[in-house]
Structures are given as structure tokens and as C-alpha cells.
Amino acid sequence: MTNNSLSVAPPGQKTLTFSWITVVFFGVFHALALFAPWFFSWSALGVAIFLHWLFGSIGICLGYHRLLTHRSFQVPKWLEYIVATIACLAMQGGPIFWVGSHRQHHAHPEDEYKDPYSAKQGFWWSHILWLFYHKKEFFDREIYQKYAPDLARDSYYQWLDRYFLLLQIPLGLLLYLVGGWSFVFWGMFVRSVLLWHTTWFINSASHMFGYQTYQVEDGSRNLWWAAIVTYGEGWHNNHHAQPNVAPSGRKWWEIDITWWAIWVLQILGLATKVVMPPKEQPAS
Description:
There is one protein chain. This protein is mostly helical. Strands 1-2-3 form a three-stranded antiparallel sheet. It has one domain. The protein is about 55% helix and about 5% strand. The chain is globular, with a radius of gyration of 19 Å. The chain is built from 13 helices and three strands.
């Protein structure tokens, strides 16, 4: 998103830039989501839930996170492109931006200056404010793509990174043609707001609440309710201990819905070189 900004300097940070356009963008979507009850239908609610899973679990968790960021498994390039395109529909940034930011997060977890959404800056900073106060290292394409050189070399990912928001146009038209304004409000605005916040809970709540199975150098936690709303990503301490492992759950009750999708792809022969947890696990 283009930056129309005002220089600010929050405590403990270098000079950042407040992005009014980003605030307005998210503000409009949140405001429009409030009108959704007047367009309610059970089918529209079903569409919102389905798209939350499709864009969230298959797109963000499986695609952006476990496949592109950590390369915890491999799929054919045509399938990789499809999954990355689905992830773009979640409106959480293009693939190079998302992957570059998350690799910075893992390289410098909770560092106040090098982690884009450091939890040491407080709950609301790691949840959403980091998107409002831009730091050049995290939002300048020429800089963040250095953390994702494998994607930056790919012309399709370069295109998606620049124009991912345009994909909302055919999506919105399709929803309107199939179900009218009811599908648009629930499939676009409600779904977007819910998916944003559930994803952001991993940056915020999962670095503050829950339990730790592994000793790590950061505050990552396993948080059961965050795992439910993010299809397995809430087992965050497990992930930070072994970030390149495909399944996030370690105990039988640490349910990881995204891993089920990877497992199905593996059964079909579409997912290969799947990285599994080491056999020796810490005691319960």
C-alpha cells in the first residue's frame, strides 16, 4: 500500500512513519463488516467460514508459512503458485512481503528493532500497530525482498507482490453474482476482518499466553484457542523450537488442521520432502 505518512517516534523505537492509508484501509473494512448483520443469511455465513479456512489454512498457514517461508515440504510449482495465489486473497500482503517479514521475525525473534512484530513492544504493537507505523526495513520492497531471494527471483511472485489486491475484484464480483450483497459482506468484509485478527493473534497472544514445551530464547507459547482459530498455528512454541517442521502439534491433543491438509497432499504424492519432528520429544 502506498504510504501517505507522518513521522512519529514511539518510545524504544527509531523514527517510524505513520501510514494513514493503511489505517483508512483497515478502518473501512472493519466499518463495513459492522453492516453484515443486516445482510445475514446462513449460506453467507457458510461462505465466510469456508473462505476463512481456504484463505487462512490453505493459503496463509500451508502456503505462505510452512511451504514458502520455511520450506517444510515441497509441491509441484504449479500447485505452489495456486496456493500462493489463494494466500494473496487473504489480503495479508504479497508473498515476498509476507515471507520476508516472517523470516525476519524468526531471525530476530522479539528484537525491538529487527523483528517486525516484536511482542516486547506490547500486545497491540505485535497485533496490529506494526502495520500502522512503518519502518523502511520492513515495508520497502527493495529491502524486504532480500530476506526472500528465492521468491524475488520468480517473476510470478514479483507480480503477486505488487498486484495482490487486484485479486479482490474478481473475488468480489464472483461473490455478488453467486449470492448478492449478502455474500459480499460476509465473504469479503467479515471474513477479512476475522482472518486478519486470528492470524495476528499468533504474533501477539501466542507470544504472551499459554505454555512452553520447549526452552527457546523468545516468549513463544502454545495457546490452544489460538490453534483452533488458526488451524494449528497456535502451537507456536513448538514452531519456534523447530520452525522448518511441517506439523505444528507435538502431542496427540495438539490438533493441527493445516497439517491434515499437508498429509493428504503427501498421500496423493503431491507433497514431498516433508520435514517431520525429531523422534525424541521433551517429556510432557
